[in-house]
Design goal:
By secondary structure, the protein is α/β, with parallel strands linked by helices. The chain is built from 26 helices and 18 strands. The longest helix has 16 residues.
Amino acid sequence: MLVADFVAETFIKNSIQRVFMYPGGTIAPLVNACLSSGVEVECFKSEQGAGYAALAAARISGRPQVVMVTSGPGVTNVMSCLADAYFDSTPLVLICGQIASADLSSRRRVRQRGFQEVPTVEMTKSISKHATCLLTVGEALAELPAAFVTASQPRRGPVVIDFPMDIQRQELVSINTSEEGSAVKLIRSERREMGFEDSVVEEIGSRLRSCGRPVVLLGQGALAAGCFALYEEIAAKVGALVVTSFLGVGSFDTEHPQSLGYIGHTGHVAANRAVYESDFLLVLGSRLDVRQTGTLTDKFAPGAAIAWVDIDEDELNSPRVRVTWRLKGDIATFCRSLIPHLPKKTEVKDQEWRESLRSLASERREDIPGNEPGAIFPRQLLDLVATRLRQKERVCVVTGVGCHQHWASRHLPFSPGKSRLLTSGGHGTMGYDLPTAIGAAMYDTSQTTLCIVGDGSFLMNIQELAALKERGLRVKILLLNNNRLGIVSQFQLITWGKDPTTGTFLTPDFVKVTEGFGIPARLLDVVEDSESAVEWLLNKEGPALLEARISSQADVFPMLLAGKSMGEMWPGRAG
């Protein structure tokens, strides 16, 4: 038995049925071991394609997935995926091939000790939970099983294994007692049930009972915790309005009467206003970063007591805003501890305030279509999509990064167990879209997988159309083409009054390109054809692409800009 065979067995023990990869010489022993052990090897057209497909499966399942790449350019090409996993708390095990251990141990002062060598550990350790290079068989035996534990523990994230090819090919019978005993001890925390002080929870419950304008903010931590019924119960008992972070979208039904949408830079007007005017804010699993709070942190929720529950002690110890209570621990445990301190039946104060915010939400001030004759505006098109998605049993919406990302998040319906959103949050990576959609569809072939993408983001990983065609997955691609890098163009126009690098973005004939990969495609450039085009896309068997030529003047607005409070948003260029 080789070390590579042991690795494949470790995959199986951790319920890894498939690994995502792009091939290369230094990872070849592991590929062969996987195939011999019955682990499927999913080969994509780039390392980024493989990495984002794995992230999709990890985000949906909540369990670590495996990405394998070769040394050198394989490592550098997958770095964006690694950063996405780290900043958005996605469990991942990244295994990188490496040159021979003897070469790594010699000539330490030279720039490169072998073909396609890069200093993987040094490059990845700041964007991973743990990064290590396996220089002995004993280290391999210790580190591989532990990697899955580390990736899964709160706060979830990626682990990097730098794996010299000669160690992969060593026989396990060659291991001796001293080598086994020298295996490194992985730095990892004990997983344990975290409790909360009764007096603190009681104090929070008392304040919730007495306040008039309570708001619950659900972040990605709340989405990952998955105790959706508890969030509803808490909100119902105190009559709280509910908002989410951008990555928390889907943790509460967006069409629930107490839901106001998501907050922050591109959030919903009513959601931002609710936080600004609240007198109590319960934050569950959200890190309150600048894209949520805005730059004027003293005007985030100026009149509110804030209770913040999170699993990450470092985040809690470095708050951007004033926080009344900081509680480290499991969200489900906190919610169960809090509920006995809340009213037995709903008690609602300041009903007029709630009704005013619901009325504001119903006005839909976000992305109001313009008056350009014959133009296709994104909100109108997405409203047609939303109507059809409500008829689907389960939906996964994947976006790239750009204007389309925020239009989709604002205007499509999301709810626990029915419709979820996958998007790049903290790292904000263009090209996240298509390979992530493929990974999501691979994980669940019965769901409707809708990939919404802009013309700029789509070009970043367009080669994965080949991976989509090979698998014949039911991924529906809605390409919103405005011949503009919209979100950056908007920033340039607001700040400098011109957008020289982004305002005119030349694109290929996406329909012909997609058909060249053997995937059906259609162009929508007449607004009257919108409904039939959406029907065609969502009802077409197998993969399909609809390119919609939308107005180049369509912006993401209103928007929370620097120097503005949560209660005041930029109304748009025409506002």
